[in-house]
Amino acid sequence: xxxxxxxxxxxxxxxxxxxxxxxxxxxxxxxxxxxxxxxxxxxxxxxxxxxxxxxxxxxxxxxxxxxxxxxxxxxxxxxxxxxxxxxxxxxxxxxxxxxxxxxxxxxxxxxxxxxxxxxxxxxxxxxxxxxxxxxxxxxxxxxxxxxxxxxxxxxxxxxxxxxxxxxxxxxxxxxxxxxxxxxxxxxxxxxxxxxxxxxxxxxxxxxxxxxxxxxxxxxxxxxxxxxxxxxxxxxxxxxxxxxxxxxxxxxxxxxxxxxxxxxxxxxxxxxxxxxxxxxxxxxxxxxxxxxxxxxxxxxxxxxxxxxxxxxxxxxxxxxxxxxxxxxxxxxxxxxxxxxxxxxxxxxxxxxxxxxxx
Amino acid sequence: xxxxxxxxxxxxxxxxxxxxxxxxxxxxxxxxxxxxxxxxxxxxxxxxxxxxxxxxxxxxxxxxxxxxxxxxxxxxxxxxxxxxxxxxxxxxxxxxxxxxxxxxxxxxxxxxxxxxxxxxxxxxxxxxxxxxxxxxxxxxxxxxxxxxxxxxxxxxxxxxxxxxxxxxxxxxxxxxxxxxxxxxxxxxxxxxxxxxxxxxxxxxxxxxxxxxxxxxxxxxxxxxxxxxxxxxxxxxxxxxxxxxxxxxxxxxxxxxxxxxxxxxxxxxxxxxxxxxxxxxxxxxxxxxxxxxxxxxxxxxxxxxxxxxxxxxxxxxxxxxxxxxxxxxxxxxxxxxxxxxxxxxxxxxxxxxxx
Lengths: 357, 354
Description:
A: mainly alpha, two-stranded antiparallel sheet, 2 strands, 73% helix, 1% strand, disordered C terminus, B: alpha/beta, three-stranded mixed β-sheet, 13 helices, 11 strands, disordered N terminus
């Protein structure tokens, strides 16, 4: 569901990159821009054969088919929300909006609150983006602008392979490498250097929010790299040549011309990875520490919404318990929409102030 | 724009194709004897803890009776009970007995048939400690309540004379997923500590006062093994199969026992006389010198009324086989078998299935 959101932006980028749409406007634009198209004859043909012609060429069929595809996705989304909503009636009536601010998670007495899970989801996702965005965009710039094509292609192949690795594998990587590393080296180092911040205090368990965020970062970086690389490659060569002709260095041309040109596509890659980070389940479950607590320290164990659903749904008994987990699903859904919306507003408003094409 | 990361989209599909095609290839071979027209197929779902032995039982039973096929999905106890109540499976399986409320929701009366026994053991990681630790019930409860926070606490030292217990913090590890293992553990702590019972209680998942959560036995074991000063509880079966070391626990007769299959069977035997007719009983903190204190039954849940006469006949004959020949397969797979007294009671209960 969430993967869908970036595509309108991508489409805009496609338009910018010069790939014509199949719609009439694109044709008329190219016609207006001076490319010789026998406009008169085309119009006559269209009038003559009308509907049959359009069917034969597949336009109407394609239109209807793609409409159906798009509509069915909307339908799935609506059905999903509907199901989540009706199957969470019990806790909605019992806790109301206090569910969102409650801090207790006690299946024994049936007292449930979502705040620690919301907090854990937000913190791990934010941490993941904080690490993954600079790393991913940097790697994409290297692969598209600076690396020799052969190396770039080989490295991209490996990166795209990473994007297809199942998340449980990342979880195993997390629990067998990231967690021991953090406990023995990472967290003691952070404590000794940045320990004055409440973020880096408390015992170093290895598992916790930091491990969750780090594993998420590793998981989303391939998405950012591969999408960003593609949009950077799609920037017209003329842009680079023009910048170089004006006396810019290679890096100035890359950073001040190419990257701003591709910013919508890069943003799309960030949204894609944000959506994945918010909803990621298995890998986070394995390293986050499974404790519904709100703690200022990143070393402390936490919990995310997707993780608690994965952990407890299979064995949960009793209507209130099960329905509360379903309501958490609804909360995650709403959270994803709100966060994605906010991220869009922030990024679009800040990039507008910057270099405008 | 050039091809988007086509590979990243194409790979899962390729993988899917591969698995489905290989799946199709191996389907006929796994169901080698083509079922006769009067073949009976039973479907069950539930607990994952007994899955290895259930799988062996159902496949062995299929070898004895090629016209009978029993399918089992280990989706978890909660899921098994839900599916049984909604009538989508012929039988369910659960580590914890069904509650009165759940039984009330059932359309027909549901019988509990204990199949094998499980136990939970405390595993720990104290660097430099040479001897095995002895845990009293109070110490376990107080560690999990967060009252005992250091390994050199006098309460621990008292039952471990001569052990070089370090002045290190105890890192408590529990299950983050809801599980029957947590139920047995918290049930035991509730029985031995009134403080635990009033503050935390017993359930498949609880509001843990302290500690880190690991997913599954493997998650808890990984955390305990990695973290100096950690203590965690794990399924005996998992500990035995993966050579995880664990400590002794003092039973209700005052004897420190290291969990083994005989000790678990003895615990069930200790309750054999007082066991209620429907077998819904907790056998933690069992009486008897040889009884390991932290263990439980795992159950097959069978409705008393089965409309299909063939299925009814098959379930009854399978239960009879499971209680006799089937029990012999338990110990090689690290499950504790049922004591004789319980088997005798269950054999009587089979006649209630109609």
